[in-house]
Design a protein that fits this description.
alpha+beta, Ubiquitin-like (UB roll), five-stranded mixed β-sheet, 5 strands, 29% strand
């Protein structure tokens, strides 16, 4: 499967953990779940902040999605922790 370029965006504590707010990424993954696993496989700090035991929200092109959402070339994929009100 050919790789496509996407833009990764990180927010809040995830941004702090990885040390930047965005990056271009080459991936051949089909969906968000596989993309998350691919990023976890990069090791720390991605493995720590995107770990399966952590609650992580995801969006594709600014629309909230679950892990079954397809990843397509040119997409903007955002990762952020759940937001709580107070």
């Amino acid at each position: 499967m050919a790789k496509s370029t996407i833009t990764l965006r990180f927010f809040a504590s995830i941004r702090e953990a990885v040390g930047h707010g965005s990056e271009e990424w080459q991936t051949a993954t089909a969906d968000l779940g596989a993309l998350r696993d691919e990023l976890i496989a990069r090791g720390a700090p991605y493995a720590d902040c995107l770990a399966r035991a952590r609650a992580v929200r995801m969006a594709v092109n600014q629309t909230m999605c679950d892990e079954s959402q397809a990843v397509v070339a040119g997409a903007e994929v955002a990762f952020f922790p759940p937001v709580t009100g107070g």
